[in-house]
Amino acid sequence: MPVEAPKEDFVKKEISIEEAQNSAITRDVINSILPPRQYEKDGKWVIQYVSIHPATRGDVVKTQAQLDKELQINHALETGLCPIRSELYAQCFDEIIRQVAIDCSPRGLLLLKLRDELNMTINCYRSLYESALEWGVRKTSIEGDFKSKTKEENKSLKKEIEELKIKNNEMMEKIETMKKNYEEEIKEKKKHHQKEIEGLNNEINKLWEELRNMLVSK
């Protein structure tokens, strides 16, 4: 039977039912986006879960540095089709989805749908591109007259791929805008809550002062 690895560092503290429910919902959403990984360690099966802890600014900097390092080590191409670069960028995109899902589950699920739709579109174009190349090679080997036609097909497919790249960039810009708007919204809410807390503290201090004055006057 698989052994479940610890999901989080356990700290004994009291939490509300709502916090526990929100934590459970976040875990379910993260698991649906990035499923747990099962592997064998020391003769036992272990299940590794993706963390539900928010990333810090330092984590983001480290991730960027690690991405640049991996691109260089694996000799990823800067332009054109490159499976290595696509895979590394996909991993970073998954991390962005994870961070957004921790702050807001619905937004995380929306990004998941965008990711899946984008992957589906890319796979479709890749299949078309590979099929066209195979067809072109086969036809060229049989008849040299089809060489110019094959070039036109290839040109058309490249144009479609460029259009897909543009669409991908637009999606990434929308995602970045959504993330910035959400961060600003959270910031404003925190500021508003802080003002409310300060107001309540002032009211409490005022009531304590009135109570002391009443006791002194007696």
TrEMBL record:
Q: Record keywords: Repressor included?
A: no
Q: Which residues form a coiled coil?
A: 147-210
Q: Which family does it belong to?
A: Belongs to the inner dynein arm light chain family.
Ordered alphabetically, the record's keywords are:
Coiled coil, Dynein, Motor protein
Spell out the InterPro entries in the cross-references.
Axonemal_dynein_light_chain
| Keyword Coiled coil set for record | yes
Q: Which GO terms describe its cellular component?
A: axoneme; dynein complex
Instruction: Write out the GO MF terms.
Output: dynein heavy chain binding
Check the record and name the Pfam families matching this protein.
Answer: Ax_dynein_light
Which species is the source of this protein?
Answer: Tritrichomonas foetus
**What protein name applies here?**
28 kDa inner dynein arm light chain, axonemal
